[in-house]
Specification:
333 residues, alpha/beta, Rossmann fold, N-(1-d-carboxylethyl)-l-norvaline Dehydrogenase, domain 2, seven-stranded mixed sheet, 13 helices, elongated
Length: 333
């Protein structure tokens, strides 16, 4: 399924083009699947697999579609990653690279990287593409930017060849754990920033909360075995700023909606699985992945999500405690 796209003078197109042509299977044809189509169509042979969520029917046999592909791109949520990876594992070639752009957790509290690593094994070739790459902007021809999280340098080089000539800039990052947790936490913290905005706390509060989020993100990444500096990468800081300020950001809107959540509504509960951030926070709590007592900003998100009333008042204890701790540290120093 190949489509050609006309270019106009407003679209950004890198100068370098690749002469290589890969066979690519894209799993999912939603917002990000269509973005992959826009980036890759015309240079590579694309096949799209989709499943009807109502009756479970599939447009093509997945196992057959995966055979002889150079790349398989998981352009769908984290939830079905394990099932789909297990189905294709015996059918993909040794040189095939699996890429994921999912930024959440599955129902067992696993990151997409953990799922792919577990299914494909030590010799598996996979990478995670995380950073500022809003689907609508990508399809409009604007540039996107991402960390390619992989420990394998050849996976990075081949993936760069895949996107050569497309307006998607990739930077190699070997901290797969770090980039995975950075994008997950970004989607947890952005609703908080949206809630602060809607509650009328002002721009100054947003600046402080973003700083606090990055500091806490760095500590969490390190606690999970990643590198602190990854919090300040495209997968962390870059995506946080983009999602928190984009007018069309779903996660920002989730936070704003929480401010107006009425008693009995499900807008702040785990039933709202359409929010990757809230779902991930629920998985963190369900499986005890983090000790929330050590991470006060996560606790604040939890408290607002669990009881989204008087949201503005819930910020005050966090702010007071943050600066009381700072004053205490300065006194000791």
């Amino acid at each position: 399924m190949d489509k050609q796209y006309s270019e106009d003078s407003r679209q950004f197109v890198p100068e370098t083009m690749s002469n290589m042509r890969f066979a690519v299977l894209v799993l999912g044809h939603g917002e990000m699947g269509r973005s992959m189509e826009h980036l890759l169509s015309g240079r590579h042979a694309l096949t799209f697999w989709e499943r009807n969520l109502e009756d479970g029917s599939e447009n093509i046999p997945l196992e057959q579609a995966a055979a002889q592909k150079d790349f398989v791109i998981f352009a769908l949520p984290a939830l079905p990653h394990a099932e789909l990876a297990e189905r294709i594992q015996a059918h993909i070639s040794d040189h095939c690279i699996c890429l994921s752009i999912a930024k959440g957790m599955d129902e067992q509290g696993r990151t997409p990287a953990a799922v792919l690593g577990g299914v494909l094994g030590p010799a598996g070739r996979f990478g995670m593409i995380y950073g500022p790459m809003i689907a609508e902007e990508v399809r409009a021809g604007h540039p996107g930017f991402a960390e390619l999280g992989t420990t394998q340098s050849d996976v990075y080089e081949r993936t760069r060849e895949l996107f050569a000539g497309a307006p998607l800039y990739l930077r190699h990052n070997t901290d797969v754990i770090g980039v995975s947790w950075a994008v997950i936490l970004k989607n947890v913290y952005v609703p908080l920033l949206g809630a602060a905005e809607e509650a009328g706390l002002g721009d100054n509060a947003r600046g402080f909360l973003a700083t606090a989020a990055l500091e806490e993100m760095a500590r969490i990444i390190e606690s999970r075995g990643g590198r602190r500096e990854t919090a300040y990468s495209l997968a962390g800081l870059g995506d946080l700023v983009t999602t928190a300020t984009s007018t069309g950001s779903h996660h920002r809107q989730v936070g704003r909606d929480l401010v107006h959540c009425a008693p009995g509504d499900t807008c702040g509960t785990g039933m709202n699985v359409h929010s990757e951030g809230i779902h991930s926070l629920n998985m963190v709590q369900r499986f005890g992945l983090l000790d929330l007592e050590s991470f006060p900003l996560l606790r604040l998100v939890r408290d607002i999500v669990n009881e989204p009333r008087d949201v503005a008042a819930k910020f005050r204890p966090f702010l007071d405690a943050s600066f009381a701790d700072a004053a205490s540290r300065n006194t000791r120093d």
